């Protein structure tokens, strides 16, 4: 496993704790891009250890693979990212995390009184949507997404 010859998929699995099948899947999703050596074996850059670690962390925070791919696309492919590279990506990451945290807090605060109730029809319910008024604002649970109910007419 000489660094100049790249890491084998087994070595990458050992370093990241991922199964070989997971590494192949992430490759198929465009998150890492190995090359083939003269014997046809996959070889990975050492920077792929960090890339895959980032993928695992981002997934734990609820980022989808397309979102992760978009973030990783801003990083260099064949070298270890510099602190400036990570600072750039972390700004985007932080902005999206802050928005998710705000949404989760709103969800927590709005559902405190009705978890297990199942009503969603009483006027005191924070999700109450008489006559489907929220529909004109778009799809999805509009009040949980940050929209405020309009006063009843």
Polypeptide structure, described:
- The chain is mostly helical and 153 residues long.
- The chain folds into two domains: 110 residues, Multidrug-efflux Transporter Regulator, Chain: A, Domain 2 (Orthogonal Bundle); 37 residues, no CATH class.
- Helices cover 44% and strands 3% of the residues.
- A two-stranded antiparallel ribbon has the order 1-2.
- It starts with 8 loop residues before the first helix and ends in a 42-residue tail after the last helix.
- 11% of the residues are buried.
- The mean pLDDT is 81.
Task: Write the topology of this structure.
Layout: H1 9-16, H2 20-28, E1 35-36, E2 42-43, H3 47-60, H4 65-72, H5 83-111
Antiparallel strand pairs: 1-2
Strand-residue fraction? under 5%
Would you tell me which CATH topology of the largest domain applies?
Answer: Multidrug-efflux Transporter Regulator, Chain: A, Domain 2
**Fraction of helical residues:** 40-55%
Mean pLDDT: 81
Largest sheet: 2 strands, antiparallel
> Can you tell me the overall shape?
elongated
Give the structure's gist in a few sentences.
This protein has five helices and two strands. The chain has 153 residues and is mainly alpha-helical. Strand 1 and strand 2 (42-43) form a beta hairpin.
């Amino acid at each position: 496993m000489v660094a100049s010859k790249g890491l084998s998929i087994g070595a990458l699995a050992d370093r990241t704790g991922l199964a070989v099948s997971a590494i192949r899947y992430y490759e198929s999703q465009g998150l890492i891009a190995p090359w083939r050596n003269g014997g046809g074996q996959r070889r990975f850059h050492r920077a792929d250890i960090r890339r895959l670690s980032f993928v695992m962390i981002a997934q734990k925070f609820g980022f989808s693979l397309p979102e992760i791919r978009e973030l990783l696309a801003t990083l260099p492919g064949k070298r270890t990212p510099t602190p400036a590279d990570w600072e750039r990506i972390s700004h985007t990451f932080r902005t999206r995390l802050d928005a998710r945290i705000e949404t989760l807090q709103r969800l927590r605060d709005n559902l405190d009184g009705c978890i297990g109730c199942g009503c969603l029809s009483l006027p005191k319910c924070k999700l109450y949507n008489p006559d489907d008024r929220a529909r004109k604002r778009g799809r999805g649970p509009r009040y949980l997404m940050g929209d405020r109910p309009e006063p009843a007419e």
